[in-house]
Amino acid sequence: MTDLLERVPALIADYLTAENIAFAVFALLWLTSMIRCFGHRRLANLARRQRREKRGVPVPISVIVLAENQCHLLRKRLHKFLDQTHPDFEVIVVNMNSQDETQAYLKSLDYMPHLHYRTLPEGAKDISREQLALTLGIRTATKDWVLLTNITCEPESRMWLYNISTRCLRGKDIVVGYTRYRNPHGWAGLRYCFFSAWQQMLNLTHVRKRYIYRAEPTNLCYRKEFFLGHKGFATNTTLLSGATDIMVNTYSDKTNTAVCLLPETTMLKDCPRSRQSWATERLFFMETRRHLRKKVTYRLRYALSVLLTWLYSLSLIATLALSLLLTEQPYPLAIAAAVMWAVHSIWRSNCINRTFRMLGEPRLYFSLPFMLHHIARWDFTAWLRHKFTDKKVFRKRFV
What we know:
Elements: H1 2-15, H2 18-52, E1 61-67, H3 71-82, E2 89-95, H4 102-107, E3 115-119, H5 129-140, E4 145-150, E5 153-155, H6 160-165, E6 174-176, E7 179-181, H7 186-207, E8 220-223, H8 224-229, H9 243-251, E9 257-259, E10 267-269, H10 275-290, H11 296-326, H12 331-359, H13 368-387
Parallel strand pairs: 1-2, 1-4, 2-3, 6-9, 7-10
Antiparallel strand pairs: 4-8, 5-10, 6-8
Helix pairs in contact: 2-7, 2-11, 2-12, 10-13, 11-12, 11-13
């Protein structure tokens, strides 16, 4: 027994080599990442459950559609909002002082029973035009629930409004729907789709536990009295965008918020036309993020998710390099690490792509690892641009 105790330090020294330590760190990160992959499946499981659940009774609902110099889009898409299969709804188009034929076109549709339209008052000085348009539309609504969107989007099907209104349950004040890009093309389109789906996937799973960090303003329902009771966007009246994000972030929790992932309730959004337009959208969100109150837990989870991806990859490289360079018999450790990496890659791809399939997003297989590793770069680039941008750009200019 004494001899065995005397040999323990030597045995520990034999095993505490650089390659074994690297493999142990890799194995720990591998296990953590494997467990985290279960979180990617939660949204798919939720979507599957909602498809199997018995649908409730649709509530009366008003759809608020913003339009600004977009008469061509109104001609192309407005009928998709008006042709919804719903027993009691109205569509309110808010014309944001368009200089094209928008007003004349809306007047030509006066015979449509579900359509109403409003125009922004001239010379509004104390509130941004987007917030004023949303507030005007919501105050005009005659139904108990309002759904916010804009004409750059279109519903997936005629059952969009019917199905999403069945999620407006008693005791709920906010219903968050899913929005995806339409017909992405090339590498850039896949990147936009992936990043949008990734962020919504993390946010929609977070709301089931705590609160909404942010919500897509193109498929978002409020109870009207909830909006008016909290004085609308009174906390940040001059921000050019992001008012809906700030409001739901401030007042949402897991008890008053519902998520709708039914396939018919997806909203289709135009894909960014250029890298610059996508970068501008990210830049404005970085400013919105500064004003969010509930952010610590979500941003910590988000940062850990991105950091874990990089640490896992670096630990794999370190394990392979040290085992091949410092070990007389490198193959056992290298083969074990390679097998574990293959198992993890297949499992992660299965979990993420399963969720993407349930949400109608394009599946990513070989490009998925590259996309995951680029998230940190995209976020850092947007943060850096925001740091060196004059903050007056994000606020209404008073004249």
